[in-house]
């Protein structure tokens, strides 16, 4: 490995225990010799170091790196799509990434240093409006395919330096957006074509914030010649392509097996911590407090009762913690459900 690069992740392909190969997970197996074949993902040391510094300065501790294209593929693709082969294009804000998932492994990845922010800059430059206004009209009126936009539907814009608003059509805005999207797709197409990935039966899956643009599915089909679909997380509150990467990375990290954690420990040097919970240990029941309605009557009753009898205590039992109101329970239920 070149000295200027650093391993950021290691993906096991198979394990070999005492000469027996093809083992996916050797956990709980007994043997003398353990070998592993896998794929190492590397990155420039300077970039990796800068990311670590940024995380630490934010007051957080970096546990490990996760390869985003692999996480996205495992999250949004079906088992068959990961097995037979699928191309995933993540249209993020800063860049566009194309990943080839085949045999449940990341076979190829390509990056184009253009993303949704470049589309916004184009709209801002051509229409002479602020970046905030350009982002808003891109989301509200933007089409990636001018054939689906209408020349009759117009909306106002506020160019810089002019006191009066100007009206433009959806079709004109779509032509600005299409030029940049076509350039992104062309650059990715040139990198994917030599790999043979464009012939895979799984087709093309689009995700990322810019995948929400109307008409982008049809434009991608026209340029790549593959079946295309747009994917987003299905969880409540995350049903938008822009949440795919964050959700996929968190889900992949949460679902790691013990073997995968051990492999990551080998490259990160972090010590694994295991939290064991004793199921036999039970918490003590809540203590209950006894309150008398009339303390004076209690003393009189206790004085008149024989010593071998328990006093007849009048009063009610109350939990030390106040009971939750029914309205609060309902509010909590809906808060958890729609969170």
Contiguous low-pLDDT stretches (5 residues minimum) are: 274-299, 304-324, 329-339
Give the name of the CATH superfamily of the domain at 67-254: ATPase, nucleotide binding domain
CATH topology assignment of the domain at 67-254: Nucleotidyltransferase, domain 5
Please bin the fraction of helical residues.
25-40%
| Topology, number of strands | 12
Mean pLDDT across all residues, rounded?
82
Structural class: alpha+beta
Organism: Periweissella cryptocerci
Region (Disordered): 276-325
Protein name: Cell division protein FtsA
Keywords: Cell cycle, Cell division, Cell membrane, Membrane
Detail the topology: elements first, then pairings.
Blueprint: E1 5-17, E2 20-23, E3 34-44, H1 45-57, H2 68-76, H3 79-84, E4 86-91, E5 96-102, E6 105-112, H4 116-127, H5 131-141, E7 154-157, E8 166-169, H6 170-192, E9 204-207, H7 216-224, E10 228-230, H8 244-254, H9 258-268, E11 288-292, H10 295-304, E12 315-319, H11 326-338
Parallel strand pairs: 4-9, 9-10
Antiparallel strand pairs: 1-2, 1-3, 4-5, 5-6, 7-8, 11-12
Helix pairs in contact: 2-8, 4-5, 4-6, 6-7
Protein name: Cell division protein FtsA
InterPro entries: ATPase_NBD, Cell_div_FtsA, FtsA/MreB, FtsA_C, SHS2_FtsA
Region (Disordered): 276-325
Short summary:
With 339 residues, the chain is of the alpha+beta class. 38% of the residues lie in helices and 22% in strands. Among the domains are: 67-254, ATPase, nucleotide binding domain (Nucleotidyltransferase, domain 5, 2-Layer Sandwich), CATH 3.30.420.40; 291-338, no CATH class.
């Amino acid at each position: 490995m070149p000295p200027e690069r650093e391993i950021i992740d290691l993906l096991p392909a198979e394990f070999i225990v005492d000469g027996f190969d093809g083992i996916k997970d050797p956990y709980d197996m007994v043997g003398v010799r353990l070998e592993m074949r896998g794929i190492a993902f590397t990155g420039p040391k300077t970039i990796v170091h800068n990311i670590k510094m940024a995380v630490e300065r934010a007051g957080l501790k970096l546990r490990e790196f996760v390869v985003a294209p692999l996480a996205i593929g495992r999250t949004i693709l079906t088992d068959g799509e990961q097995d037979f082969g699928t191309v995933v294009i993540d249209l993020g804000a800063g860049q566009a990434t194309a990943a080839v998932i085949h045999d449940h492994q990341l076979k190829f990845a390509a990056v184009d240093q253009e993303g949704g922010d470049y589309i916004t800059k184009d709209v801002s430059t051509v229409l002479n409006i602020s970046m905030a206004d350009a982002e808003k009209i891109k989301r509200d009126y933007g089409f990636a395919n001018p054939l689906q936009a209408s020349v009759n539907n117009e909306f106002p814009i506020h160019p810089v330096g002019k006191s009066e608003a100007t009206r433009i059509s959806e079709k004109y805005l779509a032509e600005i957006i299409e030029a940049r999207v076509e350039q992104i797709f062309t650059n990715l197409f040139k990198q994917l074509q030599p790999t043979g990935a464009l012939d895979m039966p799984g087709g093309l899956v689009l995700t990322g914030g810019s995948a929400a643009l109307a008409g982008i599915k049809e434009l991608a089909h026209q340029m790549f010649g593959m079946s295309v679909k747009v994917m987003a997380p299905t969880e409540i509150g995350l049903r938008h392509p822009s949440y795919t990467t964050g959700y996929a990375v968190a889900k992949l990290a949460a679902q790691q097996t013990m073997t995968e954690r051990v492999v990551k420990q080998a490259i990160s040097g972090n010590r694994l911590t295991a939290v064991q919970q004793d199921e036999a240990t039970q918490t003590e029941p809540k203590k209950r407090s006894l309150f008398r309605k009339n303390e004076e009557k209690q003393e009189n009753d206790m004085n008149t009762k024989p010593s071998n009898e328990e006093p007849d205590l009048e009063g009610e039992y109350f939990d030390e913690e106040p009971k939750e109101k029914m309205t609060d329970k309902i509010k909590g239920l809906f808060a958890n459900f729609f969170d």
